Amino acid sequence: MSTLTICIVVAFVAGYLCIALESLTKVNKAAIALLMCVVCWTLLMLDPAGFYPEIAGEGVVHHIAEVIEHHLGDAAGTLFFLMGAMTIVEIVDSNGGFNFVRDTLKTRSKRKLMWRVAFMTFFLSAILDNLTTSIVMIMVLRKLVQSREDRLIYAALVIISANSGGAFSPIGDVTTIMLWIKGVITTQGVLTEIFIPSLVSMLVPAAILSLSLNGKFDKEQNLPKAEVSQFTKVQRDIIFWLGVGGLIFVPIFKTLTHLPPFMGILLVLGVLWTTTEIFHYNTAEDDTMAKRVSDIMSRIDLSTIMFFLGILMAVGVLQEVGVLTALGEGLNEAFSGNYYLVNGIIGVLSSIVDNVPLVAGCMGMYPVAAEGAMAIDGIFWQLLAYCAGVGGSMLIIGSAAGVVVMGLEKITFGWYMKKITWIVFVGYLAGMLIYWVERMLFFN
């Protein structure tokens, strides 16, 4: 490993520590992420020929410009998907679309609400995706739980349940989609073998978290709020089905057109935006301006978007200088043949470094075999789907669901690491144990 590569890794780790210590430094995590991104890319530019020896002369600078554009394109796709999904859910919510979800979940018992939230999030994330489901559930929780201290616990459970639910579905998480499209896992394979481990990885943390939730809510706390929308019930229903139905349609749109997922989100947002503008045409302007999409979009937490951009682009540098590939090869050599340990460590790493480049690196390093652990639906690939999905819950910035909940509820990195990380780790290991038992008894 060259001196510059070590400097890049040190800069990344230092930036990560500052993000982790945000509650102490009082510096916004988005600012640190952007600085970390620029510093890492600048270090790479100090000796570009050393990283790309196969490219001679001035061509290396042009190549790096193309590389940056490539990583920016990947990051932009994720960010536009995130912004589009957040806006769609906000439109539906601001017009009373989630009232029936709130009424379904509503109970005065704190523990009953916790279990209802856990199961609804778990199964919704398998149908939609963990990111969209997290946004929906946080919006609903804001209507049901007024105490911030309690709501943080529910929000942490939403992250855990969404990531666990996304792990057993081929369309529930970006990493499972990648593995599914490559053909190394099948729908039947992950549903039959990963479902129970994923469920256990949610149930164990939920049971532990339930111990910190006692008693009942105040009678007034989660009563239905007065309806403020100027739309009729039929119009609100149309907005709901266009929004939620559109989110469900996104993976179908991707399959039919082969366009990136963010294009589907933009399609749904465009249709929903046009519909609400038509509905607003016959309403009083001063009463409805707060519900207009243009106003809703101005309320999106831009700092979360900037933070996500910085993290994804900084990880892109690690990918370019070969750190992630070397890490994977080192794991393979150190624990050769023990796929539980290799994937277990990859899962832990996915909570630190974005799981998408990690899984992409594994797909490039490990060839698909005709039989054995590397075969289609083999131990390695299924464990990779489970570990990369569930492992991202260990740190709040380890998954898209965690990042968006962090932004919506202003959860600090330190609070999550202190209160939640060890609970997720216990559930993570329990799910792996269940998978091992399944393999020994039924699928060996």
Write a short abstract of this structure:
It contains 24 helices and no strands. It is an all-alpha fold and 444 residues long.
Structure commentary:
The relative contact order is 0.14. The two termini are 40 Å apart. The radius of gyration is 22 Å and the shape is globular. Helix content is 74%, strand content 0%. Helix 5 (59-94) packs antiparallel against helix 13, helix 5 runs parallel beside helix 14 and helix 5 packs antiparallel against helix 17 (302-320). The protein has helices at 3-20, 22-25, 29-46, 48-51, 59-94, 99-105, 110-127, 130-144, 148-167, 174-182, 187-193, 195-210, 233-257, 261-280, 285-288, 293-297, 302-320, 323-334, 339-349, 355-365, 379-391, 400-409, 413-419, 421-441. It contains 24 helices and no strands. With 444 residues, it is mostly helical.
Please tell me the overall pLDDT: 80
The ordered H/E elements are HHHHHHHHHHHHHHHHHHHHHHHH
Count of DSSP H/I helices: 24
Low-confidence stretches: none
Shape: globular
What's the total count of β strands? 0
Helix content: over 70%
Largest sheet: none
For the terminal residues, how far apart are their CA atoms? Answer: 40 Å
- Backbone CA Rg: 22 Å
Look at the helices and sheets and give the structural class: mainly alpha
Q: How much β-strand is present in the residues?
A: under 5%
